[in-house]
Amino acid sequence: MHVLRPHLRSSLQLKTSDHVLLAAGFTMSAKAEKQVPTNLKGRSKSSQEWLSRQLADPYVEKAKMSNYRCRSAFKLIEIDDKFRLLSPGQCVVDCGAAPGSWSQVLVQRTNALSKDAGKPVGTVIAIDRLPIYPIEGVTIIGNTDFTTAAAREKLLSVMEGRQADAVVSDMAPNATGVRAMDHENIVHLAYSAVRFAAQTSRVGAFLLVKLWDGAITIALERDLMRFYDKVKAVKPMASRSDSAEMFFLARGFKGLQS
Ligand SMILES: C[S@@+](CC[C@H](N)C(=O)[O-])C[C@H]1O[C@@H](n2cnc3c(N)ncnc32)[C@H](O)[C@@H]1O
C-alpha cells in the first residue's frame, strides 16, 4: 500500500469546494459510508477489504450512473474543473487509457464527437498495453506498451503531423507492494510520458502525469520545470486518501530549445 507523506498530502490536496461535488450529484450518505458487504465467505482478506471499499465509495456509484467506465473519470474532471485545461478542438493523447474513463471525459471536453456544433472538433488518441473496448470519438491503440519505439511510431502515425495540445498519463504498473520498487516503476512510466510530450507537444501545451509519491518525485518535478512554465503537484479528492497517488500538472510547454 502506498501512503502519501502527510506533509506532502496536505500541500497537494485540491481545494475543490463541496459545491462542485454536490453539483456533480455526489452524496456522501452515511448509509454508503457504513455499508458492509455480506456473503464474503471464502474471500481473501484483501478481497474483502477491496469490496468494502468499493461499496463505501461514492465515486464508484457515481461512475456507474454517469456511464463512465471507472471512477478515475472524476479525478480528471476535478482537475480540469479547477484548472480549466481542456477545450474544444484540442488534440489529446491519453496514455494508459484502459478501461477508458479518461478518454470518455476527453471526448466530451474536446468536442471530439462534434456534438457542440460551431465549436472546433477535438482529437482523442488512447493507448494502453491492455485492449481498450471501442469508445466513440476515440482513436484506440490497444495492446501496445507505451514505452516502446513501436508505440511512438503508431502514435505519430495516427497524429498525422498534428502536435499535441495535451498529453495525459494515468499509467500505473502492476503494484508489487514494495513501495520503493513501485515508485521507481511508475516514475519510469512518467518519464516516458514526459519524453513523448516533449517531442510531440505544441508550445503552450500541458502534461498531466500520475505518480506514486516517493524518493524520485522531486527529481521529476525539477525535470518538468525545465520544460514547462508552471508545475504543480495535485491530489484530487477522487484519489483515495490512503493512497500515495498524486499527479503532476505541467502547464505552458516551452518547446525544445535547439
Ligand atoms: C489506472 S489505469 C488507467 C485508468 C484510465 N485512466 C481510465 O480512466 O480508465 C492504469 C493503466 O495503465 C496501463 N499501463 C501500465 N503500464 C503501461 C505501459 N507500459 N504502456 C501502456 N499502458 C500501460 C495499465 O494497463 C492500466 O490500464
What can you see in these coordinates?
By secondary structure, the chain is α/β, with parallel strands linked by helices. The protein contains ten helices and seven strands. The longest helix has 22 residues. Bound molecules: S-adenosylmethionine. S-adenosylmethionine (SAM) binds next to helix 7.
Cα gyration radius (Å): 18 Å
- Could you say how many structural domains there are in total? 1
Structural class: alpha/beta
CATH H level: which superfamily?
Vaccinia Virus protein VP39
Number of strands: 7
Major β-sheet strand ordering: 3-2-1-4-5-7-6
Q: Helicity range of the residues?
A: 25-40%
What summary fits the major beta sheet? 7 strands, mixed
Shape: globular
User: What is the mean pLDDT?
Assistant: 86
Termini separation: 42 Å
* Small ligands present: S-adenosylmethionine
Features:
alpha/beta, Rossmann fold, seven-stranded mixed sheet, 7 strands, globular, disordered N terminus, binds S-adenosylmethionine
What topology does this entry show?
Elements: H1 6-12, H2 18-23, H3 30-34, H4 45-56, H5 58-65, H6 73-83, E1 91-95, H7 101-110, E2 123-127, E3 138-141, H8 149-159, E4 164-169, H9 179-200, E5 201-212, H10 217-227, E6 228-234, E7 245-253
Parallel strand pairs: 1-2, 1-4, 2-3, 4-5
Antiparallel strand pairs: 5-7, 6-7
The protein binds S-adenosylmethionine.
